[in-house]
């Protein structure tokens, strides 16, 4: 009698887009697998368990099932596939579709960020204009300031003439 779990840990599982599953019992590079399956990329499946909320994760009295999120990470052709992991073959069209969606999302985010910056600048400029207008109105409206301004305009220096002693 053997241990089935030991056999599973010593295999490398490859999932095809059509549902077919291949098992390898030795390490293989991504480029070798891509040569065996032209038009496909190799991706590592990364599975993560997330709690619906932080309270439910820390609270042991509530038994809430965590949400499982599976992500994929494309491998470089030089990467070696490791025993005990699950990998997926992805078609070139799916990869291109994902890359263009990612690029579009990044471009959309950049546009929204720049729109927020423009709106922020606009509001700052409006605030500065309002502040300048308030300063102008307080300077001209204040009676003390207007008296100082009126005095400073009428004041002129008086110089005594210097007489030259006879030479």
Notes on the protein architecture:
The chain has a domain at 5-51 and 66-113: Roll (Ubiquitin-like (UB roll)). The model has no long low-confidence stretch (mean pLDDT 76). Helices cover 48% and strands 22% of the residues. The protein has helices at residues 4-9, 30-36, 54-58, 92-141, 143-154, and strands at residues 12-15, 21-24, 28-29, 40-50, 67-74, 80-81, 86-91. The chain has a five-stranded mixed β-sheet. It has 167 residues and is α+β, with helices and mostly antiparallel strands. It is built from five helices and seven strands; from the N terminus they run αβββαβαβββαα. Strand 1 (12-15) and strand 2 (21-24) form a beta hairpin.
Briefly, what is this?
Residues 116-125 have a biased composition (Basic and acidic residues). The chain is of the alpha+beta class.
């Amino acid at each position: 009698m053997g241990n089935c779990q030991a056999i599973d840990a010593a295999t490398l599982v490859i999932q095809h887009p059509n549902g077919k599953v291949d098992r390898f019992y030795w390490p293989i590079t991504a480029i070798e697998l891509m040569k065996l399956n032209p038009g496909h990329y190799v991706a590592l499946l990364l599975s993560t368990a997330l709690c619906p909320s932080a309270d439910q994760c820390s609270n042991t009295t509530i038994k809430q099932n965590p949400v499982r999120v599976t992500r994929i990470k494309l491998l470089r052709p030089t990467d070696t596939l490791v025993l005990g992991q699950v990998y997926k073959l992805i078609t070139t069209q799916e990869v291109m579709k994902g890359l263009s969606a990612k690029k579009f999302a990044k471009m959309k985010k950049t546009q929204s960020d720049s729109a927020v910056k423009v709106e922020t600048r606009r509001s700052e400029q409006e605030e500065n204009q309002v502040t300048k207008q308030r300063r102008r109105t307080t300077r001209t409206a204040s009676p003390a300031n207007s008296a100082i301004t009126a005095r400073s305009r009428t004041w002129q220096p008086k110089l005594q003439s210097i007489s030259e002693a006879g030479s």
